[in-house]
Amino acid sequence: MKSIRVTLPGHRHEILVEPGLTGLIPKLLKDRGLSDSVFVVTSPRIQKLYHQALTGAWPGDMPPPVFLQVPEGESSKSLEMASRLYTRLIRQGADRSAVVVALGGGVIGDLAGFVAATYLRGIRFVQVPTTLLAQIDSSIGGKVGINHELGKNLIGAFHQPSLVLSDPSLLLTLAEREWHSGLFEAVKYGIISSSRLFAFIESRLEAIRHREMDAITRLIVECAAIKARVISKDEKESGLRMILNFGHTVGHALEAACGYGKLRHGEAVGWGMLFAIEYSERKGLTSSRAARRMRELICALGLPRLPRLRSDEILASMEQDKKRRGRVLRLVVPSRIGRVSVVEAEDRESIRAALRGSGIVR
Amino acid sequence: MKSIRVTLPGHRHEILVEPGLTGLIPKLLKDRGLSDSVFVVTSPRIQKLYHQALTGAWPGDMPPPVFLQVPEGESSKSLEMASRLYTRLIRQGADRSAVVVALGGGVIGDLAGFVAATYLRGIRFVQVPTTLLAQIDSSIGGKVGINHELGKNLIGAFHQPSLVLSDPSLLLTLAEREWHSGLFEAVKYGIISSSRLFAFIESRLEAIRHREMDAITRLIVECAAIKARVISKDEKESGLRMILNFGHTVGHALEAACGYGKLRHGEAVGWGMLFAIEYSERKGLTSSRAARRMRELICALGLPRLPRLRSDEILASMEQDKKRRGRVLRLVVPSRIGRVSVVEAEDRESIRAALRGSGIVR
């Protein structure tokens, strides 16, 4: 079993990655003192898929887990759904020894994590991510939160999980589009931090696309290790952690402009990376050769066509990004494969040009 | 100006205490880089009282503060009110540089602090407490939160203020009962940690009751320093911080049993302290002489009569206390004036006896 250690001021935990790990969850929780009273937040569909694997091996001397179901989809990341979970925790008598297990994708992890962060001023929680995106990104780093009707992730907290359990075999049931969407984030890690990972994805692309277990396990381990390293150096996003936003400034704007749910998050990040590569090349910050290699890998994953968009609306949305401080727009751009830098974009015309050049605006 | 320093892992801030400090708030914020965009959460009544003092000296080169009003009273500590504040912050364009100033008593501080803790995963906030209870207790320590319809303070976070500004002259407008209610918490600090403070309250009781400025300023400084010391050693209530709950286990149960709002929090703590003193004396953990001295000071402050209560309902409520872990009921009891210890009460009959002996149950 691969173990990645996350070490933060006053907190440390492991990320475990192993195909078939789901059946070992009861024991893994017990060994770490996380089994007093377990509340599994999940969706009806996911519970149906993994209920047997999770509870089949539940030992008789451990209180059985209580399942708290929430509907699938982004709309569950709401204050109202958090409120319903609080009510159920209270009615079930959950005290400070309770452990919330988030069994699902990013929506479940963010929502359950937010509830764990704020119930009784914070109880422990464990991430059991069931999508590629959640296994390599959202389950790691302690960012939890819910949406507001005026914007995504505007309400939230930093609350580190006590354990992250990633079972790559759960990804075999993912829909094709979901799977490919997650791969854009994997490519992101290669570009921001590891030319070796980037080359691995290039060379094993077919095996990864077909979800061969050894290839995707290595992919998850490498990506998770990069994210763990970045957040260990910068938990609260004061500096380095910003590089994780490569592709995200424009990505978030595209998600908003296309209407949430139309474009997958990973797909939006894919387009956002094409923008950042274009911007970087035009400013002479990266070579044409590196830019071409990056573009080729992103396009090989298959980006969906965008609707007709105006650069004004994308710019307006970028300027509302919550990462912004004051008027300055900061962009993460690649300098070479495996390295990015943060630049301040005062000049709106260069952004428009890169939006056109990358094919986002026609 | 008296300054008390709070030093926590990864965070430090000051508590400033000075009569008339309110007029200096703009400058105090500016000197500490807390003036970029200021949102003052307060009630209409409190804003009316202090608007002039606060904004009269606001310099022209600082963006004027935005006032966000919430109704007075415990019912504002709700998820719904938090949601309304999020909406207003978003509509006003509050970004990560925004500072929330909580101008009010414990309700305002807890609510505004919770919103600051969870807006954009946490923005800075400043406590400007306007009640005695808030100046000596709730504004210090970073506990923020809201109520759930099934119980008080069940939803919350630890989020340290960037600054606490206590102006004792604001307390001159407090209603008599509010003032006396706060004094029970001051006596609590004496019993748990400082025989000198206890003796000071005993000897200057008339000056304190009549709110003579030198006496109440010293009272606030000493109490705030004790709380700052305790939380600096134990931010998240894993051990020492528990002593701050002296009088609170029964106190919370009495608030619930009498119906919230009937009994002031401080008054409930007053009765709770009488219970703990009685329990301690019966178990031989404190001397009769010390017990008598403590009882006399508490009773001199004037405790309101309780309605007829049954020990069963008080016990049931104590057992639901969120501080509980598993079945064990822990009580904070005085050993002598200035020192308390935490005992585990397995034996329910001793609790019943102390409830009767202290006059809570007739």
Write structural notes for this entry:
2 copies of one chain form a homodimer. Chain A has 362 residues and is α/β, with parallel strands linked by helices. Chain A is built from 14 helices and 11 strands. Chain A has a 7-stranded mixed beta sheet. The first copy, chain A, has a two-stranded antiparallel sheet with strand order 7-8. In chain A, strands 10-11 form a two-stranded antiparallel sheet. In chain A, helix 5 runs parallel beside helix 6, helix 5 runs parallel beside helix 9 and helix 11 runs antiparallel to helix 12. Chain A is globular, with a radius of gyration of 20 Å. The mean pLDDT of chain A is 94. The interface between A and B is medium-sized, with 35 and 35 residues.
Give the strand tally of chain A.
11
Oligomeric state of shown chains? homodimer
Strand content of chain A: 15-25%
Low-pLDDT sequence parts of chain A: none
How is this structure best summarized?
Chain A has 14 helices and eleven strands. The first copy, chain A, has helices at 25-31, 44-55, 79-91, 106-118, 132-138, 176-193, 195-203, 205-209, 213-233, 248-258, 265-282, 288-300, 311-319, 348-357, and strands spanning 2-8, 11-17, 37-42, 66-69, 98-104, 124-129, 143-148, 151-158, 163-166, 330-336, 339-344.
